[in-house]
Amino acid sequence: MRIMGLDFGSKTVGVAISDPLLLTAQGIEIIRRKEENKLRQTLARIEALIEEYQVEEIVLGLPKNMNDTLGERVEKTLEFREKLERRTGLCVHTWDERLTTVAADRAMMEAGIRRENRRDYVDKIAATLILQGFLDLRRMKCCGKD
């Protein structure tokens, strides 16, 4: 069993996959689209990755505002969640993704990745952080450490 993590943006979707033991998350790709509302190819690529990696659940980052309110981006993400669930038949969990992009950017700075190159990686790293947070919480709950 594997879990997929997604960082859904207006023009990109960062994708991460767990290892079979559900311990670690690895970023695998960034799906790019030319127009925000054109999701057919994005959904088809996600379906292909689900089949390739034998994914059984999905974690989708939920971009809440810093004051915990829900804005326009959250609405679009929840609409995307509905489409994902309908199309894949899988359970799609949401995960509060506040500050994951900031953390991803900081990690890239520390790794010495130049500013102009960071946008090539940020969504994949954010998806990895979303999924890793979900896996860590799941493991803590499973082991009674909450």
Give the CATH class. Alpha Beta
Just name the CATH architecture: 2-Layer Sandwich
Class by alpha and beta content: alpha/beta
* SSE pattern: EEEHEHEHHH
- As for the number of domains, it is 1
Order of strands across the main sheet: 3-2-1-4-5
Count of strand segments:
5
Terminal CA distance: 24 Å
Radius of gyration of CA atoms, rounded to a whole number: 15 Å
Q: Mean of residue pLDDT?
A: 87
Specify the helix fraction band: 40-55%
Global morphology: globular
Low-confidence stretches: none
The largest sheet is:
5 strands, mixed
Query: Number of helix segments?
Result: 5
Fold and architecture overview:
The protein is of the alpha/beta class. The radius of gyration is 15 Å and the shape is globular. The two termini are 24 Å apart.
Considering the chains and any ligands shown, give keywords for the structure:
single chain; 146 residues; alpha/beta; Nucleotidyltransferase, domain 5; five-stranded mixed sheet; 5 strands; 46% helix
Please outline the helices and strands.
Layout: E1 2-8, E2 12-18, E3 25-32, H1 40-53, E4 55-62, H2 72-88, E5 91-96, H3 100-110, H4 115-118, H5 122-142
Parallel strand pairs: 1-4, 4-5
Antiparallel strand pairs: 1-2, 2-3
Provide a concise account of the structure shown.
The chain is an alpha/beta fold and about 150 residues long. It is about 45% helix and about 25% strand.
